[in-house]
Amino acid sequence: MSQVSLNGDWTLTSPTHSQLSIPMSIPGDNYHALLSANLIADPYQETNEKQVQWVRECDWHLSRTFSLSSSELSASSLLLNLSRLDTLADVFINGELALRSTNMFQQHRIDIKPFAILGENHIEVHFSRVNEEGKQRANTLPMPIPWAVGNNQVPHMNLIRKTQCHSGWDWGICLLVSGIYDPVYIEVIDQITLLSVHTEQIWQQGSVDVSAVVHHDQISDHELTVTFGDQIQMTTTCGSGLTVVNFHIEDPELWWPAGYGEQPLYSLHVDLNTQSISKKIGLRQLTLNNKVDTIGSAMEFVINGFPINSKGANWIPMDAMPSLESEARYRELLSSAKDASMNMIRVWGGGQYESDTFYEICDELGLMVWQDMMFACSLYPSTEAFLSEVEPEIRQQINRLKDHPSIVLWCGDNEVIGAIGWYDESKNNKTTYTVNYDRLNRNIAQWIAEEDPSRRFWTSSPCNGDMDFGDAWHNDNRGDMHFWDVWHSGKSFSAYLDIKPRFCSEFGFQSWPSFAEVKRFVPEHDWNVTSPTFEAHQKNGRGNSIITEMFTRYFRFPSNFEQMLYLSQVQQSIAIKTGCEYWRAISPICRGMLYWQLNDNWPVSSWSSIEYSGRWKQLHYHAKRFFAPTYIPFEETDKEVQIRVVNDSRFENHIDGNVYWMDFNGEVLGQWTINYSIEEDGNDVIWSLTKEKFQVSANNSFFFVEITVNGEKVQNTWFATPTIKQLTIKKANIEVTQEDNRITLQSDYPAFFVHLEHDGKGRFSDSSFTLLPQEPITVEYLGDDLETLTHSLRIYDLSNSY
Ligand code: BMA
């Protein structure tokens, strides 16, 4: 089969600005095209976001020509493939309307043969304003449908099937982009069309039967070849449009989440009449255990019969300008997740169904995916018109994605059950709005069940369980939970210790960007946390106040702007670590924790652990430790401090190491050796000390544990006084020596949150750690810009932040 690619150069014009005509590269978005043509200031810099809002007040036209040869034109069909077409788009071929699309999440494969001509053809896509359409739709609704006020800067975007955070979020710039974000191409089809292939797995003891279900045009007697791994089968199609080919695999190599085993992938190829489809298939059994137990009910993913502790973060679209998405950046972000010991990513409902590349990389890395449907924080209509717009989206997306072993759950939305309680209209009319929600949600559930019976559908995140519309922000005994009492409600970090979630799918604490990141988008005259640029890059109304107020609760106030940035990342690390460490300590009660949020889609102050540039914040280095498969959390009980060892592994693991109780001069007050074998999926107390023993010197000392497991070192530090400002920490003098990419740090006094930063690309093998006196630590720089590293390397630590 041949293809005519329509990627690359198109022309962008606007009927609203008749003079404007610029090149635009597809896949891509109009904002990026305008930026590349120097027609707008970079929206990510300074306070430029405001100045570029005129773009959404215009209609936009995209056009190009393409040529068709006589053999192409004589094909039986010419299928134009368009997906991630954003959003209200009329597609014209040679002046004739070929497609009208109103949902950016729908995929189109339309035959343009009736409009095509020999030689030069013209394609034009007219995008009309979504803000206008939103207003109009709002006027015709049977009842008001409130939108995500506080997040969206543009009203009624909940009525348009478009990435919800395009109109701004509490970490997101408002860029109401439009364009086409997937490759565009025409398939030249002779005679019959190969439509799709999907697999089903039926498991027996020690073997699996894989059926490849091939959809094609209704035509008989064509040869179809299907290869699965090293098995090849040839068959002839029958007239039904569906051919099923079965494979039996003895002793299959199992796909496991990261940390639990390998990720072998079997290749699947289907060939039919010069057309082919290839996929990589992982063989694994999946269940979600929600069994009722003495606490409430479980929320535990079980893979290949083994219970998994899910650890990870929430994913938002990688860039507010889709032109800047790339495979390299997907790989970098997802590898960073895996490198921080994560095994699950939640694709959050205010973003997008991600591109194939995203899920392929997750399959490869062993990152399980919790997949939301794209609805978030607003209410949504359940009118016939809306349902008929959503149905093809859901069916197509589930079909596109269901062969990925990484995907473990389909979830209806983000926080839409909760949102019923947020808006006056729905608060005052709860039954009507709950029925409205239920109608949409049940339809989604049914479409998904029809398309993919192999996975569970979860009503919403958070949700207490099937058809349970309870308060999943506070009920910790069942379902998944979004716990925001610390950030949004101002509780102390210790509030994380007051709940025992079964699965906490969101909880977060903001930090400011690092100094290195700030230098990239804040002009020097605005290096101040209340400057216009800084405030414009903080989208959560009280965000900067919360960060600052928390400083006063826990820390000595930082001495300058740069130290404020540093300390904000220490603070964020402590917050999230407090939750994760405790929830791991109560395993298996808690079987999942996904903090909010992994990444940023522009440079901003946010809850992310990876900055827009890809740089790891301190939290990400901490996550690498507190999510480590075999970890040593501290736990405080009424009478004691304990160290546990939790082993998220299918195998027994041996640990050895030391526990130190040390004062801030570096004097060892107590030392214990650890030598312990921890069983698979185990959780044991391995050390404890009664509080009476250390309480008198609580402000003058700390506990430190370091273990080696499978050749890897993991450390953990615990202060008996959580209000760190009261500790009598000594000013540390940290000596730095660099030999190529190896940096050795040595301190005279115990130093905490010792963090390396530089202005270039590339991270370190470790950072934001505790450095004991006279016990040098050598870290590796994992990057290729030694020059920038050498001239910009900075070392921060807590004692020198004030
Ligand atoms: C969560 C998310 C997002 C939001 C975050 C921080 O609940 O679902 O809507 O960005 O809170 O407020």
TrEMBL record:
Output the InterPro entries linked to this UniProt entry.
Beta-gal/glucu_dom_sf (IPR036156), Beta-mannosidase-like_N2 (IPR054593), Beta-mannosidase_GH2 (IPR050887), Beta-mannosidase_Ig (IPR041625), Galactose-bd-like_sf (IPR008979), GH (IPR017853), Ig-like_fold (IPR013783), Ig-like_GH2 (IPR006102)
Q: Where is the Beta-mannosidase Ig-fold domain?
A: 731-800
State which Enzyme Commission number(s) the record gives: 3.2.1.25
The GO cellular component terms are: extracellular region
**Which GO annotations describe the biological process of this protein?**
carbohydrate metabolic process; glycoprotein catabolic process
Q: Which domain of life is it from?
A: Bacteria
Q: Does the keyword ATP-binding apply?
A: no
GO MF, any single term = beta-mannosidase activity
Provide the leader sequence positions: none
Per UniProt, residues of the Glycoside hydrolase family 2 immunoglobulin-like beta-sandwich domain are 221-284
Q: Where is the Beta-mannosidase-like galactose-binding domain?
A: 10-181
**Alphabetical keyword list:** Glycoprotein, Glycosidase, Hydrolase
Catalyzed reactions: Hydrolysis of terminal, non-reducing beta-D-mannose residues in beta-D-mannosides
Q: Which Pfam families match?
A: Glyco_hydro_2, Glyco_hydro_2_N2, Ig_mannosidase
**Similarity comment: family membership:** Belongs to the glycosyl hydrolase 2 family.
Q: Check the record and name the PANTHER family matching this protein.
A: BETA-MANNOSIDASE
The protein's name in its UniProt record: beta-mannosidase
| Upper classification of the organism | Bacteria, Pseudomonadati, Pseudomonadota, Gammaproteobacteria, Vibrionales
